[in-house]
Amino acid sequence: MEGELKEVREAYESGKTRSLSWRLSQLKALLRLLYDKEDDIFKALEQDLGKHRAEAYRDEVGLLIKSVNYAIGNLRKWMTPNKVSVPLVAFPSRADIVPEPLGVVLIFSSWNFPIGLSLEPLIGAISAGNGIIIKPSELAPESAEFLARSVSKYLDDKLVKVITGGPDAGQKLLDHKWDKIFFTGSPRVGRIVMAAAAKHLTPVSLELGGKCPAIMDSLTNARDRKIAVRRIIGGKWVACSGQACIGVDYILVEEKFAPILIDMLKATIKKFYPEFDTLSKIINKHHFQRLASLIKDPSVADTIVHGGSMDSDKLFIEPTILLDPPLDAEIMTEEIFGPLLPVITVKKIEDSIDFIRTRPKPLAIYAFTQDEKLKNRLVSETSSGSLTFNDTMLQFAIDTLPFGGVGASGFGQYHGKFSFDMFSHKKSVMRRSFLLEYSFRYPPWDGWKLPFMRSVFHFDYVSLLLRLLGLKR
Amino acid sequence: MEGGAFDGARAAELTAELRRSFDSGRTRSYEWRAAQLKGIARMIEEKEADIMAALHDDLAKPQMESFLHEISLAKASCTFALKELKRWMKPEKVPASITTFPSSAVILPEPLGIALIISAWNYPFFNLTHVGPTLMGKWNYVSEFRLLSIDPVIGAIAAGNAVALKPSEVSPATSSLFAKVLPTYVDNSCIKVVEGSISETTVLLEQKWDKIFYTGSKNVGRIVMVAAAKHLTPVTLELGGKSPVIVDSNVNIKVTAKRIAVGKWGSNNGQACIAPDYILTTKAFAKTLVDALKITLDKFYGKDPLESADLSRVVNDKHFSRLTNLLNDQNVSGTIIYGGQWDEKRLKIAPTLLLDVPHDTMMMDEEIFGPLLPIITFEKIEQCFDFIQSKEKPLAAYLFTKDKKLEEKFVQTVSAGGILINDTGLHFANPHLPFGGVGESGIGAYHGKFSFDTFSHKKAVLSRSFAGEASARYPPYTQQKQKILRGLINGSFIALLLALIGWPRD
């Protein structure tokens, strides 16, 4: 490992990554990788997560292709220094903000979208001109292997490396000094990463999770209700069987609508899953046990209104709906990250706002409503990474929206230009010439210099001009 | 602050109160934020006399004039924020994409919550916070305290946060005046000042904050970040470094010498994080540069600089010893070519030039933060670039040259928080430029809108309608659906049309 890290550092310091042409060549190579190796990717995801190829394309490969194309199309613009205004006192001078790479960056990705969450930040890191080490999660081993094999074949293997391994490998990597660390995963490990980064004063971005609520208000139109339910399901089981950081964790609905909602959910689940062959599996036994134990307690199990069946050999858990499990049970205090959907009833839908506010800030809040007042209240009274009305998950696909958390859901944002910015240092550059010297800048501080200084400071150019011309004392 | 130690319980109480105040929603409105900023501006104006009196206690000599300008600058920071606040608070509409059509998207800035702002904490060795613009020459360290403490506070308030400020304990009289006076000009349920040093800062750091902004030394920066990690709190660290100056032979030497001198000794006698730390030049040009610097220093401070009224003193005896020890190093003392005098009683050290200090001495390893200026020479100017690259990235890097190519090479290859060509210190006067470090000189930036941004969360808000429902998103995944999905994600209009008309049907 030491040798690899040294190689990346040396290659970076050679200055190779600075040119637009190197960065474009890497991005184009990544695009070729995604086209050429699509089937291999589908196979790896199928083995790791039982992910259907449509989901693999929709959630990972397709989005990556979109993001690479967006970066290729905008990179020159992003790399161009940004001219800014200069206060007149500094005349003549010129000021720019010049983006430069941070250096050698470390990317940790998680297991649920192992290809997407490794390569999306990679796009930003390459665009910004860094050397890169990717450490994919060992819980998705086929995907990690795929990345290790393919990335070095298509991209510059001295500057972009994949290092596989478990927590030991991760810890060893953290002992080194990086110019930036990007981490996607759990808050527990996020803390470890940030504390390790602190030793070297390394900036970090943490993409964590949270309990993302979906608020279901009453909708007047039957068709809209149908669509809302489909979109909720789309944000729960259709997204890697609920194992998604922006997946719907639980629903909030007025108690009088809960029965209708649950019936519609049941019907739509049946429609989407006549068999469960397109449902992703639970990643491993450890998480399977974790999820199973969430519904073990009778006070929780009694609230199951749909599903509940499990097969530990197949790592299968049926889409399960619970109605008002106890709020202090683990299923309502921890991020579920699985196919269990609590439906929490409130007296009035506005009560959802307090419910959400008294809990840690999630990565996403979803609200299905046509009530403008409720929408405005949600916008100003709740805080989350993102807020989406009348749909789920889609904010992830928009390049112009920053993606990232706040509070317990993390900090740092990426996607689109935000990825480029995340892996860059915005260096202030000011240029002056030797013309126009103001002698009143310098000691000795004779009495006459002060009035000049005052005029300059108050941006009182008229007085300054008069003084310079000797017309004012 | 009432009597009794500021311990963990008091710190917890303080954060609980700030959180209650923030949760009440009072900091969110434009009116509240503007009122606070106006209050701060008023305070600076009305309490000028009191602040000057406190300064007199803390200072070796009266520095009323520079004080005046420090006040002006702090006020200018308020004024700029007030002028721009509405614009900063506005949501930014962004184009959505074909994939999600029809939809509308905005980026909405919102406050992070409760912010802790710490300025230079004396542990174990003091590190001064950065100065305001040095255009006007010297700034006393107390002005730094005020300007430094004020600028992030302005940003935090403009962004709608509740704030706890722990000002520098280096200037006790002004610090406690601030603690007494600020709360009477602002909403003191949301803006609090905590005086103290290590123990108070430690208990503050144990609490959960939504943002921590720290200015000071690297070592303490690490401690702050480790504490923040426990609560996953984002941090901005404004640290220091050895800010180098490269002097090419192709320059106007008189102007160069003056600008270097005012940037070094005119900034509180070198005690500023963006003051030039050391100079790099070619062996051939060294004599010319040194002669020009000597002439300039004679002009600025006279033949007996320790007696000059325009020379600031070293802030305290701990730093005085630190600096004299650097000079007493047997490998260093022989390299002094100008100055080197000091007066322990008055804590004054004269502007001192040293030529070719050995690279492995402490003076060339640690940030000097004082009136000692080593000049390191190399055969070729390119070696000066290499030397900078071999060291940690500094907060500022300076180059004096008329050679455009050399200038471009410097900008492209030297990484620093900020770069200034042909002058020193000025770039910090520009509120349109982000001020902050990179690598060991810091994380994050502020000034102007960057202050507002550093205390904000940019929330993505996406609105969709129920029209345009693409069944292709959902299982069962037929071949047709997969085709549409591909088209949609890649922004194909036809795929969009088909999806919009609901094809394929389920």
UniProtKB/TrEMBL annotation, chain B:
Pfam families: Aldedh. GO terms for cellular component: cytoplasm. GO terms for molecular function: aldehyde dehydrogenase (NAD+) activity. It comes from the Eukaryota. One of its GO terms (biological process) is aldehyde metabolic process. InterPro entries: Ald_DH/histidinol_DH (IPR016161), Ald_DH_C (IPR016163), Ald_DH_CS_GLU (IPR029510), Ald_DH_N (IPR016162), Aldehyde_DH_dom (IPR015590), Aldehyde_DH_NAD(P) (IPR012394). The active site is at E238, C273. The keyword Oxidoreductase applies. Coiled coil: none annotated. Keywords: Oxidoreductase. Residues 18-130, 147-461 form the Aldehyde dehydrogenase domain. Belongs to the aldehyde dehydrogenase family. This is Aldehyde dehydrogenase.
